[in-house]
Amino acid sequence: MSNTAxxxxxxxxxxxxxxxxxxxxxxxxxxxxxQEANAEQLSxxxxxxxxxxxxxxxxxxxxLTEADAEGxxxxxxxxxxxxxxxxxxxxxxDPKPKPSAxxxxxxVIADDAVVDPTASIAAGVVVEAGAHIGPNVTLGAQCFxxxxxxIGAGGWLAARVTLYHDxxxxxxxxxxxxxxxxxxxxxxxxxxxRWQKIAQIGGVRIGDDVEIGANTTIDRGALSDTRIxxxxxxxxxxxxxxxxxxGDHTAMAACVGISGSTRIGxxxxxxxxxxxxxxxxxxxxVFVSGMTMVTRSITEPxxxxxxxxxxxAADWKKSAARIRQLDTMAKRVQQLEKQLLxxxxxxxxxxxx
Amino acid sequence: MSNTAxxxxxxxxxxxxxxxxxxxxxxxxxxxxxQEANAEQLSxxxxxxxxxxxxxxxxxxxxLTEADAEGxxxxxxxxxxxxxxxxxxxxxxDPKPKPSAxxxxxxVIADDAVVDPTASIAAGVVVEAGAHIGPNVTLGAQCFxxxxxxIGAGGWLAARVTLYHDxxxxxxxxxxxxxxxxxxxxxxxxxxxRWQKIAQIGGVRIGDDVEIGANTTIDRGALSDTRIxxxxxxxxxxxxxxxxxxGDHTAMAACVGISGSTRIGxxxxxxxxxxxxxxxxxxxxVFVSGMTMVTRSITEPxxxxxxxxxxxAADWKKSAARIRQLDTMAKRVQQLEKQLLxxxxxxxxxxxx
Amino acid sequence: MSNTAxxxxxxxxxxxxxxxxxxxxxxxxxxxxxQEANAEQLSxxxxxxxxxxxxxxxxxxxxLTEADAEGxxxxxxxxxxxxxxxxxxxxxxDPKPKPSAxxxxxxVIADDAVVDPTASIAAGVVVEAGAHIGPNVTLGAQCFxxxxxxIGAGGWLAARVTLYHDxxxxxxxxxxxxxxxxxxxxxxxxxxxRWQKIAQIGGVRIGDDVEIGANTTIDRGALSDTRIxxxxxxxxxxxxxxxxxxGDHTAMAACVGISGSTRIGxxxxxxxxxxxxxxxxxxxxVFVSGMTMVTRSITEPxxxxxxxxxxxAADWKKSAARIRQLDTMAKRVQQLEKQLLxxxxxxxxxxxx
Lengths: 353, 353, 353
Hints:
3 copies of one chain form a homotrimer.
Chain A: E1 7-8, H1 9-16, E2 19-21, E3 27-28, E4 30-31, E5 41-44, E6 61-64, H2 66-69, E7 76-78, H3 82-90, E8 102-103, E9 108-109, E10 114-115, E11 120-121, E12 126-127, E13 132-133, E14 138-139, E15 144-145, E16 150-151, E17 156-157, E18 162-163, E19 167-169, E20 174-175, E21 180-183, E22 188-191, E23 194-197, E24 204-206, E25 211-212, E26 217-219, E27 226-228, E28 233-234, E29 239-240, E30 245-246, E31 251-252, E32 257-258, E33 263-264, E34 269-270, E35 275-276, E36 281-282, E37 286-288, E38 293-294, E39 302-305, E40 311-312, H4 313-324, H5 326-348
């Protein structure tokens, strides 16, 4: 890390509206966990599980709640939500290089593309005809921006991102390396055992404040646009098929796959490895747990799961074999109930209700 | 969309051999669904589920069957298979840029590589020694084509595709952005708890009319070639390990993983998220449903599945706990049957067969 | 294949310390399986399943054990571990191009980056400020190496690899095309239904002799570094989230996803498609079978699994339906046991213990 920014505790307190306990002139040059922080690093206590590390921390200061501050002898920034305030302050200490405005001489920009003078276009970037790159946008090295794409103000694309033609992106959108937006979806019509390609003539429309993870893929629409709402956060290696719509502020962890034309509501949380079939609808405020296979629409908010729990492999083999016998077993239980009813009625009458 | 191609309904009818009902001079400038089409867009009715939208569509004309055409008052192109004819006409309205022939000055082409003069090589492309780029091939920006690769006539590679050395590709093959073909497979020999790399000296051989999705990876063979048959369609983020063989006209949806040396037959359909272990064989005409774990060879055509159905999380927790107890429960049922037999034989004789 | 290296059997025997049976002057120009080898190719017998092909092989010579050599009439290299010796010799026949040292004129290297004169930097590579490229490192075409990265001696990066800033890589590390190391992990704090980004200020630290597969992603740490131990082998399309730690000599097959802050021990083997939740610990010497969902820490070495076995789809539908009824069925079995106890006690006394 080369970051050498330093801040007084008083200035940090002002930024997050904290009650400062201790030395306002204490200098802070970094962020770290309670266990790892040194005497010039700020830390935070957001999870009661880590409270045990508070007393012995070497941190310059700690972001914590009123309750946790009680009895703490070090410097403290007392706030209602330490995790959120840590999120806010974290950007002060980010060692991510901040490129200067301008177009690198090795970039290839189409004559009729519009690049805002405040944008930063790195080495090897290709921008095609009719594209618009907004103010304060950063295009990392070797990005490809297809014809007629629009990237709104403040966008940040890491190195090696692909936008096919006709991808429209809102403001302050972050796209990690290797992501591909606007690829041609999986559209084929069967003709006598062969697959005939269907041209994918829609685009992709992405809202404001979206984040898209490394090597995530979002296909363009077959006819109308694939749509990603405002504030949506997509982790790495997610696959979004053509015509999918994702509602505002929904978050998906890594390795999720959403099949074509499925619509997902707002404020949903989809854990890692989940798969959804196509042409279904998920309502707002749904949580789906890791590696669940979603095979039907969800119309009620709440938590949903599938799969089986991990076992030692020897036990698992027995369970897996029994699952295949389940239908037979269910019928045997039914038969037992019938027989027992005969027995009890025959020998004890109807004494059991 | 910048596409402004327009066609008369009569000319479209001729292309798909349709019976034209209505105005042959009607101009068509695009394609859309029944609900979204405007007065200059062609639509289609291929799924009876959408028949309800037919009466009120604003489409310039609709591709439909004789049966659906009955009573329809708008312009119609009557065909036996509307979906297939939509597929065929869709390419007329594709806004995908069509690059002109020639090599961009920033491309780096090895002296002894052969590039057909009708091929189009975009900015930043690298083509290494001994490669052959066939007629009418398009290499998108920043593609890498390794030594001795062969790309057959009419191939279309999006931006940022990697072909390692010794990858041979048939005619009319489409490869989406971020795909990697010919990477070194996962071959290691164990030596006292450490892994020794095995050189991957085979190549990859891909047939005609194949499509390979965004960020899909296909490893080169360890000794002989990994092989993808004619007409195979692979969606995004699929992983094909070394030595795999995929039969002609098999299609795989996104996020499928095929382990090393597995052979898949012809005309199979593998749904999203399926995983297959290595060294197995799948016969022709097999359908595997989404997220199935294929742990053994399949020798009979048909449909196969694994996994559990989604439930509300609270119910799922109970099911998952019960699955771990299944072996015990099966033994309890067996015990019940024994006991009941004693009871019934003891008290009622052998009255129940 | 253009590889024309040739070796005498005697020289190969010396390299792997083999007992040579047959003609020491036999020339070997390649490697192949027993079935496919021609008269100038070396083969090997490592798996008794393939013993049947030994007698009829056309191979120039065969690597095999003393036991298998008995009665074999062809040329043989007799060794204790044929598979390991095949691994060792395989590199002699690798057709992978060996680039010469130096920086391609189209590469863009920051003024203060240090590139060892023995390193090979291909076309279109970008190396940013403060990076160190060690001796005999190969950077394939269009790689991006971020600020302050360090790549140790002998590293080999395929085309189109991304290293974000502050990624430190040991010696002899192999990274396949499309891999992304150091991307910003999925860190967000919730604020009134919206997600606020947490800067990811840690780096990534990778040991010696690591291999990282095509399109695999490894996120940088949120605060401290994500760590990959020595000798770790990661296959294609693996996702490693922020703060994960992987112990030495652990291997993971393709499509595995590891969530944030999880720690995996040494010498583990994780099969394809496995998912692990965050913040758990896996001890040394654990094997996890394909597509298992690991939802809790593992503290005992051994094999672990989850999931259900594949069935024909019609049978599977019944099993899946029965699984949802399992809790009810378990209660019915319990009820049967109670009732039967009443029956047997009532009619037969306590004759059954």
